[in-house]
Amino acid sequence: MTKDTGALYQKLVEDQEQLFHGIPQDPEWKKIRLSAWEDFRKLGFPTTRHEDWRYTNILPFLQTPYQIAGKNGVHLNASSVDGLDLPGLDAWRIVLVNGVLHQELCRLPQEGPLRVLPLEEAAALPEFRKHFSRYIDTANNHFAALNTAFASTGLFLELGTMATASKPVHLLHLTTGSSPLLIQYRNLVVLQPQSSLTLVEHFVPLYLSGDVLVNSATEMVLCEGATADHFRIQNGNQHEATVNHTQVFQDASTRYNNHTFCLNGKFIRNNTHVTIGASGGESHLYGLYITGGDQLVDNHTFVDHRKPGSQSNEWYKGVMKDRSAGVFSGKIFVRPGAQKTNAFQQNNNILIGENATMNSKPELEIFADDVKCSHGSTTGQLDEEAAFYLRTRGIGQQTARSMLVHAFAYDLTEKIRLEPLKRYINNLIDEKI
Amino acid sequence: MLSIKNLQVNIGAREILKGIQLEVKAGEVHAIMGPNGSGKSTLASVLAGREQFEVRAGEVLFQGKDLLQMPPEDRAREGIFMAFQYPVEIPGVSNVNFLKTALNEIRAYRGLPPVESREFLKLVREKQKLVEFDAKLANRSVNEGFSGGEKKRNEIFQLAMLDPRLAILDETDSGLDIDALKIVASGVNKLKSADNAFVIITHYQRLLEYIIPDFVHVLYDGRIVKSGGKELALELEEKGYDWLKTEHGPVAAPAPAA
Known about the structure:
The complex is a heterodimer of chains A (about 425) and B (about 260).
Chain A: E1 3-4, H1 7-14, H2 16-20, H3 27-43, E2 45-46, E3 67-68, H4 78-82, E4 92-97, E5 100-101, E6 114-118, H5 119-122, H6 126-131, H7 142-150, E7 155-159, E8 169-177, E9 181-191, E10 196-208, E11 212-222, E12 227-234, E13 240-250, E14 255-262, E15 267-276, E16 282-291, E17 296-305, E18 311-320, E19 325-334, E20 342-351, E21 357-366, E22 372-380, H8 384-391, H9 397-413, H10 419-432
Parallel strand pairs in A: 3-9, 4-8, 7-9, 8-10, 9-11, 10-12, 11-13, 12-14, 13-15, 14-16, 15-17, 16-18, 17-19, 18-20, 19-21, 20-22
Antiparallel strand pairs in A: 1-2, 4-5, 6-7
Chain B: E1 2-11, E2 14-24, E3 29-33, H1 40-48, E4 54-62, E5 65-66, H2 72-78, E6 80-83, E7 90-94, H3 95-109, H4 117-130, E8 141-142, H5 148-162, E9 166-170, H6 178-191, E10 197-202, E11 215-220, E12 223-228, H7 231-239, H8 242-248
Helix pairs in contact in B: 2-3, 5-6
């Protein structure tokens, strides 16, 4: 059985009329939704019999009697949101609460090339219609299909041609509530030609005491010559199970950097799919996951080289403590004709807990003959000799361990060019160890 | 300061140390010499707290405290420092952070407040100058990219920074050219005082031309078979170690790597 059609599936089928009711009646969007719904009906939810979900059992999180989060906002005090600003980082701020854009909590320029709208309000714009749901593969991605069918909240963010955002954009994804909720929202980020954006997505709970399942999807389009530094900080809590699907599409001569940090949250599954759809695209995917307790963090990545002369470089590292589980699967796909592709992938892991586990699955699929590709995966333990060296200098065992985990993470944290963000991440790592 | 009585140590089933006796007092410099595989580095490792050894018998008191019961970090905090034969490279741990953490943990153990940043940097400069260690430390990881000689000199620099009561130098001279050797020796000579002590473990007499020991001990097959003054080192240099075999018999088990 590769698909699950249990309680949540049934509820969605029963409620479909209601779910479709009240969503924008834009005919084009409706078509996309119905088609995605058909996809989801075929796919159901994934079980561990499905190759892409082999080590990641989502079924326990599908048994909860969730309410489906609506379009209405939840009132939050600006002051409690202010506390979530990244110290020392001068940034624009966008706030989504359970997927709903709260403009009163945002801090954005009055005018200029940076445009932020609730998803529904953007639906009529040509820039939206040109890109929305053009890149995400709903036929093969259970949650992305479900998201495409029903998500009507979320945001449209656009940066105009030739523009460089004057500050980084801090995009806060807040989850809140005291009863079980299924939260689905959808974002579309469009970087027009030659534009440049730093986007810091920050996933945090705020007064969250009910179990939530978040199914979010983001499409990010880099038009010709655009550059994006895309950070994701996932720091949920024990009530939170998250499936995040990010689909990036890169046009010619674009550069996309992704820095993903998975810290807290009971269950995290990230599908990070990057399509380099034209020549001269360059992608860097960096990921760090530190898990503890009975957490499960699964990073599933897919880099699709479609045209000649593009390059990708992927490096994910993980530290698993206690009984926690890490999963990494990464596929590099080089299509026929995508000659002169350079694609590298590495995954390194450290197990600290005796009952911690790691499953790592690097994959290359290459259909061109003039390419340079490599992948590698290691899983080991902290360097005992280094720990001993530190201890002989008076450094306690805990501190020594923490220093070595930082050192292990350093390859990824040093790549953060925003100093305040680097400090913030390093503090989160400290807390986590 | 350090009192080792009948120390017997195994690695697995193999006996490495077979009853070591050694008394070290403040202000003294002891040299422990011996051929490869005699147990020199094992002795240093046991004193520093390496865990893969099994202490079968004997005791080690450091300033009256039972050393063998302490984890390595507490030994360091009590005032023991070991300069490694093979200092470890730790990519990603910055030299400065490492030293500051070490210094502050030792200070905290002794009830002292953390050192101020400015004061710390001043101390670094001062000690670097003292031991003639001019490698750039800022923005570099511990021992990373250091040459063999620089790593050894970094050990002496750390020694200067942490100011221990007892320093154990484990074959610090190995792999050093004569200039580096002189610098290391001169560093040690400057750090020597009436309040601290040094145990210098070495295969060759060479280092002892520059650091004059008060006592020389010959370690052979897990025992100290001979002790004397600095002239014993010269005698060893002349005669080599072969005479030990005739006087004390060949080493029973195959010699472990040093």
